[in-house]
Design brief:
Number of strands: 10
Shape: globular
Number of helices: 20
Strand order of the largest sheet: 3-2-1-4-7-6-10-5
């Protein structure tokens, strides 16, 4: 018998996100259920065109009620309940059904935990923090959501959860242009729920207030809630890590005294020795304040911890990798530090490792290019290195390189990537067509300066360098 899968979502004015959600679910689900809670945009039309069945639910400030309404219409053996601004990564889509088929016969397994990664669409899809979430579970009458805001799925005692290492959900809801409105909405709902219960707060509310206050820039309040969490007995390791991270981030945002910030990092590292984000954060903070020796030691410590704990196949720490978003900056600063020690091979390894994780990181690329010029790398050798990082079939990659190399007056290397980027990388003509003469002149001047540097390349590398480049250009 074929395993049946239901994909459910509640939505209100999600026209910007729903198409991506539908595209993610179409290859997996046997049915898609969209519960509309009062949209005034094209949400319902997009849902129907994408093959979903639409139900209407009168919004009552209760996320659990809306989600349980959706579950009441689901008919599958398993439910995928991702939010409208969440979707499976491209590599994960083909892995969902085989995983559910494998665990289906074990009735004790009620659901699947997998990594949810917050990405910032306003910063080129940059990955931020990650956490472990339950988004896949059996369809059963006793599995229902509770809580009007920050709703959770109630599981019977004795239920097991599968930890899926290789399934990843991407979440766009914390993008910079979105997050403030979401935090303001959640704050109102949370305060409303507390008022309805006579002002009584639940222990977990401290976590939600901490996140909301931090997101709204209320750093003193966020720090207070983080400390309140850390004072609780039997605090889960992942929540302790989140509290320490928020506390440290608040201190940095407030430019607190160095002794206070250093003490926070030391406390975090003692309490959470398996979390690489704290030595990473401390090392980057040390670097920014000019403590080069302290920075290098902390960053190297973090890399050792990350390699040790995040390679364990059954470790929840490996799935919830909140250190990963720091790695491009970690490799960037290590590259600078190694270069200062004249460890050029180590510096290049660090720069390449960082760019492999974040190809369009401007600061990292700028430092790497300066390093290549400093060691006198020939244009053909530079292109060979960049080919190992960037995809020459990707317009975005080629435009990024052409634009950055043009500003850097990169000579033959610039010319090589200009050819592959096409006209999109060079807006001078577009500015001219739009009547923006000043912008056109400034852009053209930048391009001419880059082309002029070809003459310097010819002087520096002679006929041999030119011949090597011609081989690459073929």
């Amino acid at each position: 018998m074929k395993l049946k899968i239901s994909a459910c979502v509640i939505a209100k004015n999600e026209a910007a996100n729903l198409g991506r959600w539908l595209k993610s679910m179409q290859p997996i689900a046997d049915e898609m259920i969209v519960v509309d809670t009062g949209s005034t945009d094209a949400t319902e039309e997009i849902a129907r065109q994408g093959g979903a069945t639409v139900y209407h639910f009168a919004w009552c400030n209760d996320f659990s009620a809306a989600k349980n309404f959706a579950l009441g219409h689901a008919k599958g053996d398993w439910v995928l309940f991702l939010d409208a601004d969440e979707f499976f990564s491209k590599d994960s889509i083909a892995k969902v059904r085989p995983l559910l088929r494998r665990i289906h016969k074990n009735r004790q397994t009620a659901g699947v935990l997998c990594r949810l990664v917050n990405i910032n669409l306003d910063d080129g899809g940059r990955r931020m923090t990650s956490l472990v979430q339950l988004r896949m579970f059996r369809r059963a009458p006793h599995l229902r959501y509770t809580g009007s805001v920050h709703e959770t799925l109630t599981l019977p005692k004795g239920s097991n959860l599968e930890l899926a290492q290789d399934i990843e959900i991407l979440h766009t809801g914390y993008s910079a242009s979105i997050v403030r409105k979401k935090m303001e909405r959640n704050l109102v709902l949370l305060q409303q729920r507390i008022a309805e219960h006579g002002g009584r707060e639940e222990p977990v509310d401290a976590r939600y207030f901490m996140d909301i206050c931090y997101g709204l820039g209320q750093y003193d309040k966020a720090e207070a809630y983080a400390k309140k969490l850390l004072a609780m007995k039997n605090l889960a390791a992942d929540l302790a890590g989140r509290a320490y991270e928020t506390w440290a981030s608040c201190l940095m945002k407030k430019h607190a005294p160095e002794e206070e910030t250093a003490a926070c990092y030391e406390a975090a590292r003692r309490a959470c020795p398996e979390l690489a984000e704290f030595p990473f954060m401390q090392g980057l903070w040390d670097y920014d304040r000019g403590d080069w020796l302290g920075a290098e030691q902390a960053l190297e410590d973090g890399l050792a911890i990350h390699a040790r704990y995040h390679g364990q196949p059954t470790s929840i720490t490996a799935v919830m990798d909140n250190a990963a978003y720091l790695l491009p900056n970690v490799w960037w600063r290590l590259g600078c530090l190694r270069e200062a020690h004249r460890d050029f091979a180590g510096a290049q390894d660090a720069y390449v490792a960082g760019l492999s994780l974040s190809k369009h990181h401007e600061g990292l690329f700028t430092s790497f290019w300066a390093y290549l010029r400093r060691i006198g790398a020939a244009p053909a050798d530079v292109i060979a290195v960049l080919r190992g990082i960037y995809d020459e079939q990707s317009p975005e990659d080629m435009q990024f390189l052409a634009q950055r190399l043009g500003r850097a007056r990169a000579g033959q290397v610039y010319l090589y990537y200009r050819k592959r980027a096409g006209d999109h990388a060079f807006p001078a003509l577009a500015y001219l067509a739009a009547g923006r003469m000043d912008a056109a002149a400034e852009t053209a001047k930048s391009e001419l300066a880059a082309v002029r540097s070809l003459a310097h390349d010819a002087e520096d590398h002679g006929a041999g360098g030119a011949a090597a480049l011609l081989q690459v250009l073929k």
